[in-house]
């Protein structure tokens, strides 16, 4: 048993981790505090500061192993915890805590005190750890979240293009279902060759059902594109197409990384509403494939 003072009240708590480490992670350094509890319940502390360069983190790992400390708890501070986690992951059992769950009590704070406080909470198993999937799932998650960002960038460029067309009174969106479809883009490319000329032949540019809407299309493109708006439209289109290419490259990486999970992906895609490979991959990238990591279905 050991005493932990919470809000000024001493509490007798069981020691769960006799040797453990609390870490206060910053951008350029990590403060680590090892709490070692002997057989009569007396805890001693050893603190040290390490650089967050790879060499410093390797020194931190060796420092822990030399002291037989394999249970570690750290705050999930921004992205700074990730390199630390990556170095320690193979040799230590790491609990990653949300900062609000390891917030120190009021008083003068120092990095050493913060690390010691985390170690004290952790040795009594009072820290709720965040879900942390295996390394390959974390990589998949990172790529999928970046893919989502690229999709958002594309959506923003679509909106900008539509705004340019609106102020130029080019009303393609009233006739075609998708301004970024093949027919609409072919018409827009032709318009941008000479914005002052809208009398070109539309029929070779449109596909299938749109051919019977040629009169409406003719009215829709009868606007006025200023040189400035034409320049802006070209930049938007170029950026959008570049994003599309980069997204395709990223998707190749994602599919390669997700290849070992074909069975899980196939099962997920039997659920209503999950048809796309990337929808299924997105689910796996967030929750992993080991459902035993969650206490209940609600989690």
Question: Would you write up a description of this structure?
Answer:
GO terms for molecular function: DNA binding; transposase activity. This is Transposase IS110-like N-terminal domain-containing protein. There is one protein chain. The chain has 299 residues and is an alpha/beta fold. The chain has two domains: 107 residues, Ribonuclease H-like superfamily/Ribonuclease H (Nucleotidyltransferase, domain 5); 157 residues, Helix Hairpins. It has nine helices and seven strands. The protein has a five-stranded mixed sheet with strand order 5-4-3-6-7. The chain has a two-stranded antiparallel ribbon with strand order 1-2. A hairpin with a 3-residue loop joins strand 3 and strand 4. Helix 4 runs antiparallel to helix 7, helix 4 crosses helix 9 and helix 8 crosses helix 9. The longest helix is centred in the middle third of the chain and has 33 residues. It is elongated. The two termini are 32 Å apart.
Please outline the helices and strands.
Blueprint (H helix, E strand, L loop, with lengths): L1 E5 L2 E5 L5 E7 L3 E9 L5 E9 L2 H13 L4 E5 L5 H8 L4 E5 L13 H13 L11 H33 L14 H12 L20 H7 L6 H32 L3 H7 L8 H11 L12
Parallel strand pairs: 3-6, 6-7
Antiparallel strand pairs: 1-2, 3-4, 4-5
Sum up the structure in keywords.
about 300 residues, Helix Hairpins, Nucleotidyltransferase, domain 5, 2 domains, about 45% helix, two-stranded antiparallel ribbon, alpha/beta, 9 helices
């Amino acid at each position: 048993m050991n005493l932990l003072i919470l809000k000024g009240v001493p509490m007798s708590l069981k020691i769960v981790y006799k040797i453990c480490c609390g870490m206060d992670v910053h951008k350029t350094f990590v403060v680590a505090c090892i709490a070692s509890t002997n057989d009569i319940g007396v805890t001693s502390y050893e603190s040290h500061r390490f650089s967050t360069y790879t060499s410093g983190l390797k020194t931190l790992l060796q420092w822990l192993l030399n002291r037989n400390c394999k249970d570690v708890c750290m705050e999930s501070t921004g992205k700074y915890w990730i390199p630390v986690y990556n170095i320690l992951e193979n040799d230590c059992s790491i609990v990653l805590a949300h900062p609000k769950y390891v917030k120190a009590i009021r008083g003068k704070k120092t990095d050493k005190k913060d690390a010691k406080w985390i170690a004290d909470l952790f040795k009594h198993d009072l820290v709720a750890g965040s879900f942390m999937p295996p390394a390959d799932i974390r990589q998949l998650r990172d790529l999928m979240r970046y893919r989502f960002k690229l999709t958002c960038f594309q959506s923003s460029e679509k909106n900008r293009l539509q705004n340019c067309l609106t102020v130029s009174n080019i009303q393609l969106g009233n006739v075609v279902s998708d301004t970024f479809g093949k027919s609409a883009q072919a018409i827009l490319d032709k318009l941008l060759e000479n914005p002052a000329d809208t009398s070109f032949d539309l029929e070779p540019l449109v596909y299938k059902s749109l051919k019977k809407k040629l009169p409406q299309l003719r009215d829709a493109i009868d606007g006025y594109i200023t040189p400035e708006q034409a320049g802006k439209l070209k930049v938007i289109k170029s950026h959008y197409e570049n994003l599309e290419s980069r997204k395709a490259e990223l998707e190749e990486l994602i599919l390669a990384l997700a290849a070992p999970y074909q069975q899980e992906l196939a099962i997920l895609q039997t659920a209503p509403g999950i048809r796309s490979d990337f929808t299924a991959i997105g689910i796996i990238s967030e929750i992993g494939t080991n459902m035993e990591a969650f206490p209940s279905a609600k989690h």
